[in-house]
Input
Amino acid sequence: MIMNKENVHKLTNGLKFLFRGFSAISSDKSLWKWALIPVLIDLALLIFVFFSSLDLVGSIVTTGLSFIFSSTSGLLYSLLYYPLYLILYVAFVVMAIYLVYIIGSVIASPFNSFIAEKILMNRGLIKEQPFELGRWLKLSLRMLGISLVRALIFIFFGLFLFIFSFLPGVNIVTSFLAFIIIAFDNMDYSYEAAGLGLSDRFNHLKNNTFLFSGMGVVIGATLLIPGLTLLVMPLMVAGCADSYNSTK
Output
């Protein structure tokens, strides 16, 4: 890979893909309702996870310490309880957000499919067609099946990511690869709308490595705020569709 003018342009486009997604949705007001429905679903799931985690983690820590202490009152008990609670809560929430992302992506697949298809139509990359419930349901069911397969792959990959997260240096590489995979996952809606085969999808990834790298950096940045990745998922799908159009 050579950092020439074209690749710098692709990297820059990747870094701006969320803004491109916002612009693409804003230019077609009809897309906002398709974007907001999955956001509200993901937000409800996140709120449920955060609040249910409080009691669950507390009970796990209490049960674990009960094997050591006969009483829950005492300085040593408190000194162990709160650090353990914080560590376990953070670990639990991180894994929960990962699972919510998988569940949310499956639930949101029909809406994301429409967003990607409509943006590619607006950009003239695929033929403009009026909304038809039957055609949308057919595309949605196909993408739902693909999303379920991807969810299984993501769960399997997540286990390896969890293991490698304990290896200094390696965890940075695997995390960045995970961000690129998420970008590729969001781009898949555009691939499906454009009718690309599997080999064409991987060729597009290979030919636009800098574009996906830029997207990966942005996706990694969204993880700094727990849950933000889920809430901006429609913008990711829209940004990927607009970015795909720019590569054609």
Observations:
- The chain is about 80% helix and 0% strand.
- The chain has a mean pLDDT of 79.
